[in-house]
Design the sequence.
């Protein structure tokens, strides 16, 4: 009987779920039986990707943003009692799932309560430093307290100076065994004709996802060329709408999105870390608009701009004409790293 491994990504946008896709595929290829556990759109997306695997709904963190980025930290503090209760409920649910589904191991992507002392438990994160301005020391310490409850931490980045995450994922003192597994992506670069002039990729918690969508729909009316606009809302059915030079999709499956990005000359998106890993793998030219108030995305966007890879700007400063700056930048580059999944999965 195959060992069952529970894969539990956080439902915060789509990034945590999508970067678990290659891990789920690798588990199956290495003789394990993956079981998916999440909630909301993250769970919906993975159910569409892997209808052949069992899935379980976990308690929802219900993470959302304030309409103004400056209030984001205050909102997180206000919501923290509810969040702590959810983590406690999640821990209880995980313990029961391990017993009832004969789970042999857990891979949690940023779900703080998705571990069990009776089976090997892994925490995936690119945030060993949790940037929060003047309180970075505190948010990092609190995050490390939760990470220390797992058996291993897997960091999806390179360990050396040539890396994608900068200071986010590189920390001298580590509380548990930490393995840098290299950037991971569900995509493969293919040589193809770039027939799409601009690809817009949206994701992330509300209301900021919708606020950016409304703004960009107005902005792209001034773009000369054909546009594909992926709204990042997994639903039961894929909806496609055409409006002048723009084709709107509510979501795309991995295979279609891979082909679409490969076919695109330029990509406009949030500066989420998973998006950056995907675009680096496909070596794309990009423009980033970090989510207001999300310090991590603001740091990543600024870092890539300062290094000459991709331009970026604040959300309230965006103009479609800023996309002309992309030609002045190198574009994202792939490390061409291969993850040794056989070695990683030996933990189980």
Sequence:
């Amino acid at each position: 009987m195959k060992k069952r491994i529970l894969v539990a990504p956080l439902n915060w946008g789509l990034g945590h779920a999508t970067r678990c896709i290659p891990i789920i595929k690798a588990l199956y290829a290495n003789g394990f039986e993956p079981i998916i556990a999440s909630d909301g759109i993250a769970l919906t997306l993975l159910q569409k990707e892997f209808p052949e695997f069992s899935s379980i709904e976990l308690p929802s963190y219900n993470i959302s943003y304030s309409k103004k980025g400056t209030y984001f930290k205050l909102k997180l503090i206000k919501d923290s009692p509810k969040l702590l209760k959810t983590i406690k409920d999640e821990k209880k649910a995980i313990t029961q799932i391990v017993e009832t589904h004969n789970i042999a191991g857990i891979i949690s992507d940023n779900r703080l309560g998705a571990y069990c002392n009776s089976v090997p438990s892994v925490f995936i994160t690119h945030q060993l430093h949790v940037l929060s301005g003047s309180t970075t020391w505190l948010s990092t310490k609190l995050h490390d307290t939760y990470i220390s409850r797992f058996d291993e931490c897997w960091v999806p980045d390179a360990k050396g100076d040539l890396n994608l995450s900068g200071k986010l994922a590189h920390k001298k003192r580590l509380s548990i065994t930490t393995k840098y597994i290299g950037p991971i992506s569900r995509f493969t670069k293919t040589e193809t004709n770039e027939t799409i002039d601009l690809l817009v990729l949206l994701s992330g918690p509300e209301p900021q996802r919708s606020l950016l969508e409304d703004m960009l729909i107005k902005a792209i009316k001034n773009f000369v060329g054909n546009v594909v606009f992926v709204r990042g809302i997994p639903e039961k059915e894929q909806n496609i709408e055409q409006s002048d030079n723009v084709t709107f999709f509510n979501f795309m499956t991995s295979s279609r999105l891979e082909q679409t990005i490969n076919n695109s000359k330029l990509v406009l998106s949030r500066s989420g870390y998973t998006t950056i890993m995907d675009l680096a793998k496909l070596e794309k030219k990009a423009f980033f608009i970090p989510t207001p108030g999300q310090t991590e995305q603001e740091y990543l966007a600024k870092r890539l701009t300062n290094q000459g890879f991709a331009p970026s700007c604040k959300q309230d400063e965006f103009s479609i004409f800023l996309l002309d700056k992309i030609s002045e930048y190198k574009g994202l580059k792939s490390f061409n790293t291969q993850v040794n999944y056989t070695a990683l999965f030996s933990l189980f």
